[in-house]
Recover the amino acids of this structure.
């Protein structure tokens, strides 16, 4: 009997193990694979033939994947060299692996396409499962991982906003992940469930960042309210296309940006003479199971199961795409995306989702994003005068 292999690539998400669970459970239910392997450490684990057999897990143990952060089998960003795809195809033959599922972002889907080509004629089906917090994978409405990252940032900014407005004496700048696409940053707009509850300003990498406009926006808000909450993307670029803070390290497609939130907070202090502080959730934003979106988890599990189903049917060279259903309610349909179309281009926020001044998002974005965050946030207590009412 032949075997199935699941491989993780790139940075983990709060629901990547949900897709792993879905794939394993679907393969077990099908009954065809003799072994259901996970590559320990991504493609590097494949090349080193390090596999774990999920069929050895005791009853009930697999359910813990649904609430486990990070990648339970490990991941990698090791660039593949010429010949590595053919070497992996040889390893598949050696271990009688007939079905391969790769769960990852743009780079992993590109790897998936190349691996499918290397396995042509060998009877190996290769299917991709989308995964990214950045939501920048093309040809899909959204990707598992984004909803939970969006929920985390919106919830965190919501709490920070309450703190700042309890003692209105300073400006707080929150930095969001996303080097080229501002989807996560934009999701902070959903921190507010009523006018005045959310962040005051949002800056995404799709629009050139102007230091002068930023300082003007902040000065106006501080003059009006005595405080301001700003959310800015780590990938902000100026009018020339250069990062507002030079990257501290770059290798291949991986860029480690400088501290944008600290830079902007220092700018406010230095130029406006106003107290300011920075917050940078960083990895907490992609690792938090506490703020995991129930919708995101459900879709991650289903996408993993669908990938296993398609691979076992013999489909190859495709990714599981999520297509939003039309109508009043929210729902998605899984559709095959041909990976030969090219997956390395980043899917950015469309113009209609960013406001005219470039310091916030539109209601159309909020309507698109809101269902992905899952259940509503709990209500906060606000005194009448906070909402414009009279003092008692």
């Amino acid at each position: 009997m032949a075997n199935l292999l699941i491989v993780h690539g790139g940075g983990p998400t709060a629901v990547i193990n949900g897709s792993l669970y879905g794939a394993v459970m679907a393969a077990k239910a099908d009954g065809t694979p003799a072994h259901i392997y996970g590559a320990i450490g991504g493609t590097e684990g494949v090349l080193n033939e390090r596999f774990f057999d999920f069929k050895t897990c005791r009853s009930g143990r697999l359910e813990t994947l649904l609430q486990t952060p990070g990648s339970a089998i490990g991941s990698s960003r090791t660039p593949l060299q010429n010949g590595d795809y053919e070497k992996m195809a040889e390893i598949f033959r050696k271990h009688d692996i007939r079905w391969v599922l790769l769960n990852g972002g743009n780079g992993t889907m590109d790897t998936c396409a190349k691996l499918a080509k290397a396995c042509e004629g060998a009877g190996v089906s290769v299917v991709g499962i989308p995964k990214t917090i950045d939501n920048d994978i093309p040809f899909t409405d959204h990707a598992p991982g984004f909803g939970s990252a969006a929920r985390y940032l919106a919830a965190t900014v919501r709490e920070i906003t309450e703190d700042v407005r309890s003692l209105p004496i300073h400006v707080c700048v929150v930095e969001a992940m996303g080097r080229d696409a501002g989807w996560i940053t934009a999701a902070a707009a959903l921190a507010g469930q009523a006018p005045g509850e959310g962040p005051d300003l949002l800056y995404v990498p799709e629009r050139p960042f102007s230091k002068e406009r930023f300082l003007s926006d902040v000065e106006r808000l501080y003059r009006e309210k005595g405080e301001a909450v700003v959310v800015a993307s780590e990938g902000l670029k100026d009018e020339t296309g250069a990062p507002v803070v030079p990257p501290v390290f770059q290798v291949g497609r991986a860029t480690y940006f400088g501290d944008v939130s600290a830079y902007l907070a220092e700018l406010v202090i230095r130029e406006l003479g106003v107290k300011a502080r920075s917050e940078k959730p960083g990895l907490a934003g992609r690792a938090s199971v506490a703020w995991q979106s129930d919708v995101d988890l459900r879709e991650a599990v289903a996408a993993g199961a669908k990938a296993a189903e398609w691979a076992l049917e013999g489909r190859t060279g495709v990714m599981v795409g999520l297509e939003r259903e039309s109508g009043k309610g929210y729902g998605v349909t899984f559709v095959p995306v041909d990976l030969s179309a090219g997956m390395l281009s980043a899917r950015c926020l469309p113009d209609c989702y960013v406001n005219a001044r470039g310091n916030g998002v539109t209601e159309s974005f909020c309507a698109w994003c809101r269902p992905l965050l899952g259940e509503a946030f709990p209500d906060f207590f606000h005194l009448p005068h906070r909402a414009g009412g009279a003092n008692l």
In short: The domain at 146-288+349-374 is CATH 3.40.50.460 (Rossmann fold). The chain has eleven helices and 13 strands.
